[in-house]
Design brief:
Helices cover 36% and strands 26% of the residues. By secondary structure, it is an alpha+beta fold. The protein has a single domain, classed as Alpha-D-Glucose-1,6-Bisphosphate, Chain A, domain 4, CATH 3.30.530. Helix 2 crosses helix 3.
């Protein structure tokens, strides 16, 4: 009798596990098919702007250049601002799930969106190119469109892009 009760409870447990797994798979399938809209896509002057206090963004600036506190320092490059923009666009071409949203020639700014691999959540990335006498540099501001935490994704993205740029110099 005890063996029968044990098997019966085991079957109930397995059925519950199968239902939960099925529910998770349905939810996963539904979410991965969603196309979350981009909430932040307007030009903003990054020189005068400030980083938010939320942990879901990252700011990289040339030393002592931005008004807000930067997470990363961007080096100066030995080529023109226009050449830097061309080189940066080449780097972006190799980035997965990344598209150009806008270009603002007045601010020398490009606005990109990169979507997460699993659910397609959008992160908006502003890149503004700046002249520094005989050199050039850029400001990168990357932020999540949804949620309060990003598990360091925006910071990793900015560091990766800066590393690729430094390799070109």
């Amino acid at each position: 009798m005890a063996a029968f009760i044990y098997r019966s409870n085991l079957l109930k447990y397995l059925m519950c596990l199968i239902k939960l797994t099925g529910s998770f798979l349905v939810l996963f399938t539904m979410l991965s098919g969603c196309n979350f809209s981009v909430k932040f896509d307007q030009s903003t002057d990054l020189i005068r702007g400030k980083k938010s206090d939320a942990p879901n963004d990252a700011l990289a600036c040339p030393l002592n250049f931005c008004r807000g506190r930067a997470n990363y320092t961007v080096p100066n490059f030995q080529f023109s601002k226009a050449a830097l923009a061309v080189k940066f666009r080449e780097i972006i071409k190799s980035e997965p799930r990344t598209t150009l949203l806008h270009s603002n020639p007045g601010l020398d700014q490009l606005i990109f969106v990169q979507r997460s691999r699993l659910f397609g959540f959008p992160d908006t990335i502003w890149v503004q190119f700046v002249d520094l006498r005989s050199e050039s540099s850029l400001i990168i501001y990357s932020r999540s469109n949804y949620g309060y935490w990003d598990f360091g994704i925006n910071g990793k993205r900015v560091k990766s892009w800066l590393k690729k740029l430094k390799a070109l110099d």
